[in-house]
Amino acid sequence: MPEHDPLTKLRDLHLPEAVSAWPPAPGWWILALLLLAALLLTVYRWRHHRQKNLYRRLALQELVQLQSSNITAQAYLQSLNGLLKQTVQAASGQSSTASMSGQQWLHYLNQSGNTNEFTEGVGEILLQGPYQAHCENYDQKALTQLVKQWIKGHQLKNGEQR
To answer: How much is the pTM?
Structure first.
């Protein structure tokens, strides 16, 4: 047996360094940029939508305040009609509907709200009610619900949108 073993002169196995996670590969940079762009676009659209519909939220708040106020039926109907006109004006940025009245106004509300409740239903009280001395024979809750539904869902004509 030889005294000198050649295997003793071999060095131990050395493993290579671990692959570093930084800097990431170019594909990860591209993916990160795309995700950031998508996030920014989503936030921009969400803020634009919220700003565009701010008038709706304000009108609904005013409707709640109007419901809790202790006013006569005639004053309630006048205020409700005024709220509808303010809402249309805020949505369109035009005052073209401010001069509407009577059947023309109710037809406009029907058309923009995709309903017929203003001319053939509970909303018909808006035609004469605000001008009568005593108008207690209407369903205030149903009318308020109709106005709330209209505020939430009305769609103006393309030419009227801001």
So the answer is: 0.74
